[in-house]
Structures are given as C-alpha cells and as structure tokens.
Write a structure and sequence with these properties.
Number of strands: 9
Distance between the termini: 82 Å
CATH class of the largest domain: Alpha Beta
CATH superfamily of the largest domain: Beta Polymerase, domain 2
Radius of gyration: 28 Å
Structural class: alpha+beta
CATH topology of the largest domain: Beta Polymerase, domain 2
Number of domains: 4
CATH architecture of the largest domain: 2-Layer Sandwich
Shape: elongated
Length: about 400
C-alpha cells in the first residue's frame, strides 16, 4: 500500500496551496490533510471535501488567514474548526484535539499539539490517516492496512469509540456500504450490535441525515441486510421493513444505471402505507418536501389504475393525473420491485412515459358552470369533479362543448 498521495491533483491546486502556505508560513510542519480526502485518495475514490488538521489554535488560524488575504469563518470554533475560503473554495481547518468528556452525542475537547492524541479520538483507523503537504502519509493507528483490505476498524477499543458517539454505528455501515469490500470487521460489528440501543438517544436529524447517506451508496444491499439481521433497522425506524422490495429498487438502479435515490429506497425499506410513512416521517423529522414525496409514493388513491397501467396506457394516464408524474413513477417502480413475476410492461416504459407526459388543461372552469346557472358551492364543485373524471376516463378527448353538453343532459 502506497504511503503517499502526491499524485492527487487537488493537493497541488492553487486554492489548496494558498491555505497550506498560509498555515506553514505561520509555523512550519503545523498542517496536514486528514480524514476523507486522504482516505478516498488512497481508495482511488473521488475527493469532494478537503479537511486540514493543524497544531495552530483557532485564533491563530483566523489571524493568519486574514494576514494572508484569505477569508476565514469561525464555523465551529469551540471545537477548533475554522472554514478558510481560498479562490472561492472552502477548506475546514481544525486544531488538533483530544476528548475531555463525551456523553454519546457530543464531546468536550481540549486542544493539543500531539498528532497521536488527535488520531486516538477519531472513529476509524482509515479516517486517522494524515498527509503532509508533500503527500507523504502518516499512519499513527494502522489505517494503511485497512485501506488495503477496504475495511473499517475502530481506533482503539470499538465499544469505547461507540460510547463516545453512538452515530459511529451508522457511520460504520455507511462507510462500509460506500467503500468496503468483503466482510465487516468482526469486532466492530459485534460492538455495533451490542450497543445499538444508544442510537435511540441521538437526534432525529442526525439519524435521518446519516440514513440518507447510507442509502445513497451505489449498492447498499449487503450492508442493509446485515443491519436487518442484527435488528438495527427495527431499533432505528421501528420496523425491519421489506428487504425484497428494497433489493428490487436497488437492482433497478444498478441494472438501469440510475443514480441512487435515497428517498425511494427508504420507502421500499419501510414497506408501509400512508399512516406508517407519516409516523416515520414525523419521527425522523423529515422536511415537508421529503415527507410529501414519501407519502405520495404510497398514496392508494389510484391503486386500481396503477395496477392496470402495466398493460394499459390509458390507465397510466389516469393514474398520472391522480398522483402526479413523480408519485406515479415511484409507485410503478415499487410495484415492479415487489412482484415475483415481472409485469407485462416494463416499469422503465412507464417511468419514461410519466417523465415525458404533459398534462392537458381541463377545458371547463367554475365560471362556465356559473354561466349555466350553477351557484358557487358544493354542487358546483361536485359537477366539476364529475366532468373531470369523465374527461380523464376518455383520455382527455372530450372538448369543452362536449363536456358542457354532457352536463346539460
């Protein structure tokens, strides 16, 4: 396993060098890259965020950045983090730390100049790899061996690391889903199973954020199956869900080259009707948009037409009108994923049909009915609904005059 990431283009980018030069000018040898950027570089995976660890205090970083003409924002200064912006790009610069106290959700930290102390408070050994400005990798905990094996091993004692922050259980599965190969580290998995009740003490926002990242992995089926077998899904969400439907949705993504859709995958896993989804959305404190998407995906109002849509495009049109294009596509995919025998029409045809279908404008308005003598109120609304249902059933062909004549008769 290489102990250098000197070949990484981001390492030599002008914005990166601006920040490193600023820190090194203040104190030589005070800055190293750390965490995901080093890990992903060694894995051969894309690097999206660049984190830098430093021996300098946050106040020194702020002053040095201003002196160098860089913008600096104290985004997490109590925990040692300053966001430095160079050439429009943000870099998180964090002072080396050691934990003073932890409660399973947050930590009280003290600053240090010791790289080993900073490494010992990190979650996994592959996340405790540091790279000097020239790309040389420093490995205080044995993470390079884990990079080669593509596994995630806790720094030090696994149970201790988890008790410091129970979200590390979900991070174990999330990182393994994204980057792991082979079996999970046995000690890490055993500790996660043993201490899973600690997940109940985490904020709903943290759990939901980590859930979306986990389900957004290209193919998380193996990891989700392990979580289900260890009752972790039930601990987190109250149900173990349907692995069959979930597997079917992921298989659709893999086979069709679709981008992973965390929300649709969660609906598949939850395997419930509107009330269950509503309860889960509230428990996890989803946004209104997320909760709306999930509830529309299980809306039963067009169930008959949805079933018929796999063999009848007229039924598909009626279902799209009732549900909306996104909900129709979601429901078609879920229905196909749950079928043991494939339906007569491929879900991809229906999904493409929904994406390209343009809803015609209903030609009759309430004003038209008022001109015919209707009074504003429930009777007028019922008449409009009846006309619209007939118009949809006739595939939008009746004209305005046809519909008004129907009403007269």
């Amino acid at each position: 396993m290489s102990n250098s990431i000197a070949d990484q283009s981001w390492l030599h980018a002008p914005a990166t060098r601006d920040v490193i030069d600023m820190l090194e000018h203040e104190q030589a040898g005070s800055a190293r890259f750390v965490g995901g950027c080093v890990r992903n570089a060694l894995f051969g995976e894309p690097v999206n965020d660049i984190d830098i660890a430093t021996q300098l205090t946050p106040q020194t970083v702020l002053a040095a950045a201003r002196k160098a003409g860089l913008r600096a924002v104290p985004t997490g200064i109590d925990h040692g983090t300053v966001t430095v912006i160079a050439r429009g790009e943000p870099f998180e610069v964090t002072t080396l730390r050691k934990d003073v106290a932890t409660d399973g959700r947050r930590a009280v930290v003290a600053f240090t100049k010791d790289w080993s102390e900073d490494a010992e408070r990190r979650d996994f050994r592959v996340n405790a790899l540091y790279a000097a400005p020239d790309g040389t990798v420093h490995d205080p905990t044995g993470g390079l061996a884990d990079v080669e094996a593509r596994r995630f091993v806790f720094v030090g004692d696994a149970e201790t690391r988890i008790r410091e922050d129970y979200l590390r259980i979900l991070r174990l599965f999330r990182f393994s889903a994204w980057y792991g190969r082979g079996e999970l580290d046995e000690i890490a998995f055993s500790a996660a199973k043993k201490l899973q009740q600690g997940l109940r003490d985490l904020s709903a926002e943290r759990v939901w954020s980590e859930t979306k990242k986990l389900l957004g992995a290209p193919d998380p089926r193996k990891i989700v199956q392990l979580m289900s077998g260890a009752d972790l899904l039930k601990t987190l969400y109250g149900v173990n869900g349907s692995l069959r439907v979930f597997d079917g949705i992921v298989d659709q993504d893999v086979q069709s080259g679709l981008a992973p859709d965390s929300l649709l995958r969660f609906v598949a896993l939850a395997d419930g009707g509107p009330e269950r989804i509503k309860t889960m959305a509230a428990k996890l404190k989803m946004s209104n948009a997320e909760a709306g998407r999930l509830q529309s995906a299980v809306d039963p109002s067009a169930e008959k037409d949805l079933k018929a849509a796999f063999g009848d495009l007229a039924a598909a049109e009626r279902a799209i009108m009732a549900l909306g294009a996104q909900a129709f596509e979601d429901q078609a995919r879920l229905a196909a994923a749950g079928e043991v025998v494939p339906p007569p029409r491929d879900w991809r045809i229906l999904a493409d049909y929904a994406r390209n279908w343009e809803q015609p404008d209903f030609p009759v308005t309430g004003g038209d009915l008022i001109l015919m003598g209707y009074e504003p109120g429930p009777m007028l609304g019922d008449a409009l609904d009846e006309l619209k249902a007939h118009w949809v059933s006739e595939r939008f062909e009746p004209s305005k005059q046809d519909l008004l004549d129907r009403l007269k008769h």
